[in-house]
Amino acid sequence: MNLAIRDIGRSAARFLLTAFGIGLLTSGSLVMQGIYRGIVTDATKLVRTVDADLWVVEAGTTGPFAETSRVPRSLADRVAAVPGIEAARAFALASETVTTGGRRQTASLLSLDLPDDGGWLPLQSGRLLRSAGEIVTDASLGVPIGGAVAVGGEMLTVVGLMEGMVEPSGDPMAAVTAADFRRIQAYRPPEAVELARAGGDSSTGEGAGLSAVTASVQPGRSLAEVLDRIRTWPDVAVLTRDDQLSLVINGRLERLRKQILLFTGLLSVITAAVVTVTIYAMTVEKQHTIALLKLMGARDIIVLRLILDQTGLLALSGIALGFWIEATVAPLFPRRIVVDTGAALQVSAIVVVTCLIGSVAGIWRASRIDAREALS
Fold it and tell me: CB of 91 within 8 A of CB of 214?
């Protein structure tokens, strides 16, 4: 290590620039991994948060998160009557444009059928729903408690703020009562109603049905028995919580995961190329020194250790810089970035292995240096 440090001191600028380059590549991998894990966290937050063991959806679908699912409102009563079911709740989720302080943005509305006030929601401040005309929103919507939100012809008052309840796209979620949800879904602007009537359509809109029915199984009852009973119904399909999570991660986010893996792979290849060129150039520069060491009787292991020590210092410096850069720029991103211990170890291992692979060219060049070259 002492030889490596002394040699690095002779070309400190190149070493620092290379370490900085590896740090940038490392931070890029960390950020991409963090963005993916953040999207997975956002996409699965609602499934993990909802107090439900089973999701009953439209037959032939895997909704409501993977595809469109519509079931009748009476399905909640049917599911509640199944032996072993502790509670069944209507579940409806729709994307709507909301207006707050003159600013329009998209939010996902979650319907809560009182007296189910959504006690499982991750409430940050305020309270849950008690009556129509109220809304509980994610804090990212930017509306304080007591503020007004206009959506679908309804003016709702914010009574509570949630934390981390957002869609994979980053849009915030909001919870409203089932009565408000139906009115919002049925709303059409007066101009649209007049145009429809002029065209012979006298309807004024109709509220949408449910996306699914969620159910919790009584403690001590067999989940498999309840599943088998509901699966005999021809008009619905039933999924467990694990099924829903798998569909979201392996279905909805599958393409994104492949893109992240491809991007990380490209960064690894670039890192290997940078390290290869740097170590090879540093080896060529000290060709006379290596030949002199061999002439003095130094074993090949001494030369090998010199190159590996330099490679290790490059990798460690690059990893440290990468983590520092990631920690500095991550708060600037508008999306959630999750870098846990597993991701940090994975990226660090990739960088170390890539640097070791990159050192092969330097080791090969050093092995071909003859001791007689020191006399030339």
Answer: yes
Angle at 75 between CA 69 and CA 80, to 5 degrees: 130
As a whole number of angstroms, the distance between CA 324 and CA 110 comes to: 39
Rg of the chain on CA atoms, in Å: 30
Buried b (16+ CB within 10 A) or exposed e, 208-236: ebbbbbbbebeeeeeeeebbeebeeeeeb
pTM of the entire structure?
0.70
| Cβ-count burial 285-302 (b if 16+ within 10 Å, e if not) | ebeebbbbbbeeeeeeee
Residue 230 near residue 54, CB atoms below 8 Å: yes
Mean pLDDT of successive 10-residue segments in the chain (376 residues)? Answer: 63 80 86 83 82 86 78 87 87 86 86 78 88 89 90 89 82 88 78 54 54 87 87 88 83 79 82 78 72 71 78 87 89 80 85 82 74 61
Q: What are phi and psi of 110, to 5 degrees?
A: -110, 130
Query: 209 is written with which tokens?
Result: 């049905």
Residue 238 φ/ψ, nearest 5 degrees: -125, 135
**Euclidean distance between CA atoms 136 and 156, whole angstroms:** 9
- What are the residue ranges of helices labelled H in 50-120? 75-80
